[in-house]
């Protein structure tokens, strides 16, 4: 009787094929962002046109108090290049950009009535989203031009956006080039890690992306996952992300300790109470010695930690630049 064939180790080519469709969207996203930057002032104007009915409502007198809108171009780190709009009178100043839709609607209702106030509050969210995207450009390092004149804020903002967008164009090209380079490096680190972990089996560990048809930046959220079951007939696998797997290990360990103390199997409530009594601690997403033991990798500890270290070294900068690019998306 011939021996059973050994299951193949992690196959690099299969996973590369699964990534191609998701990676194809990145080029389209890059093209769309470049177009947005080239016409940044026009995109801003198309957003502000929806706020014109609200803007025309000020200045106004209400109960002998004069209310007006004041505008500002932010230069701080968190709102760099963003347009600020505040409602002001002699006794107060409210930054409208910091209000959520419900609170803004309540603030505007005495001036416009409930129906129009709701419409203005909805339109204002478009400005907030535009401001978020503009603030996201700060990581590129381009300077937002601040006019020395003291003219009206809105024309100066539009003029500044036009120049700012053009200054960001080559920098966003560089950012996508870096993202592509880090993506290639992360792919390689993941393949090496998965190869180190060997064939797929019960409680084997894999590093995989989240793949869907909607993410404009392609594969996302690379994470370590533990195989918790394999259907022999269909070969379908179930995974637990590492943090959840660690929680289950902790729960099992607590249950075993309680069994020794109580001399019986603990009730689920006993285990829950014991867990709640522990100091709150967020489980890390990385492999530990306890995980290696639970997953039957005892003899490969050195190789596993080395592969994980290489993975982390690439994953952290990849996550950072992906998050920065994500902030620019509509």
List the defining traits of the structure above.
four-stranded antiparallel beta sheet; disordered N terminus; 2 domains; 330 residues; single chain; alpha+beta; 10 helices
Shape assignment: extended
Write down the oligomeric state.
Answer: single chain
Structure classification? alpha+beta
Supply Rg: 28 Å
Query: How helix-rich are the residues, as a percent range?
Result: 55-70%
- The largest sheet has its strands arranged as 1-2-3-4
Helix tally equals 10
Total count of strands: 7
Distance between the termini: 62 Å
Largest sheet: 4 strands, antiparallel
Protein topology:
Blueprint: H1 12-38, H2 40-48, H3 52-55, E1 60-62, E2 65-73, E3 83-89, E4 92-95, H4 101-112, H5 114-136, H6 153-197, E5 205-210, E6 220-230, E7 237-241, H7 242-262, H8 268-277, H9 289-294, H10 301-326
Antiparallel strand pairs: 1-2, 2-3, 3-4, 5-6, 6-7
Helix pairs in contact: 1-6, 2-6, 4-5, 6-10, 7-8
Can you summarize this structure?
This protein has helices spanning 12-38, 40-48, 52-55, 101-112, 114-136, 153-197, 242-262, 268-277, 289-294, 301-326, and strands at residues 60-62, 65-73, 83-89, 92-95, 205-210, 220-230, 237-241. It has 330 residues and is α+β, with helices and mostly antiparallel strands.
Description:
It contains ten helices and seven strands. The chain has two domains: 12-32 and 175-326, no CATH class; 39-140, no CATH class. The model is unreliable at 1-10 (pLDDT under 50). With 330 residues, it is α+β, with helices and mostly antiparallel strands.
């Amino acid at each position: 009787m011939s021996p059973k064939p050994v299951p193949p180790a992690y196959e690099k080519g299969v996973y590369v094929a699964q990534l191609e469709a998701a990676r194809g969207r990145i080029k389209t996203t890059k093209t769309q962002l470049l177009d947005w930057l080239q016409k940044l002032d026009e995109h801003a104007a198309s957003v502000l046109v929806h706020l014109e009915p609200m803007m025309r409502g000020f200045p106004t007198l209400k109960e002998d108090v004069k209310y007006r809108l004041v505008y500002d171009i932010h230069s701080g780190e968190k709102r760099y290049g963003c347009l600020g709009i505040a409602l002001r009178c002699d006794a107060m100043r409210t930054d409208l950009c910091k209000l959520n839709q419900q609170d803004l609607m309540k603030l505007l209702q005495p001036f416009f009535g409930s129906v129009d106030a709701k419409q203005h509050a909805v339109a204002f969210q478009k400005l907030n989203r535009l401001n978020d995207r503009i603030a996201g450009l700060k990581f590129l390092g381009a300077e937002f031009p601040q006019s020395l004149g003291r003219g009206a804020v809105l024309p100066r903002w539009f003029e500044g956006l036009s120049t700012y967008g053009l200054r960001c164009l080559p920098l966003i090209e560089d950012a996508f080039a870096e993202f592509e380079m880090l993506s290639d490096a992360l792919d390689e680190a993941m393949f090496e890690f998965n190869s180190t972990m060997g064939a797929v089996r019960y409680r084997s560990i894999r590093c995989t992306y989240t793949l869907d048809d909607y993410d404009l930046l392609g594969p996302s959220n690379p994470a370590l996952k533990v195989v918790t079951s394999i259907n022999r007939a269909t070969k379908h696998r179930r995974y637990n992300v590492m943090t959840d797997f660690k929680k289950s290990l902790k729960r099992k360990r607590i249950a075993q300790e309680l069994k020794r103390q109580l001399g019986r199997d603990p009730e689920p409530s006993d285990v829950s109470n014991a867990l709640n009594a522990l100091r709150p601690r967020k489980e890390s997403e990385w492999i530990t010695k306890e995980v290696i033991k639970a997953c039957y990798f005892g003899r490969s500890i050195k190789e596993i930690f080395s592969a994980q270290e290489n993975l982390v070294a690439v994953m952290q900068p990849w996550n950072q630049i992906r998050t920065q690019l994500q902030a620019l998306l509509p």
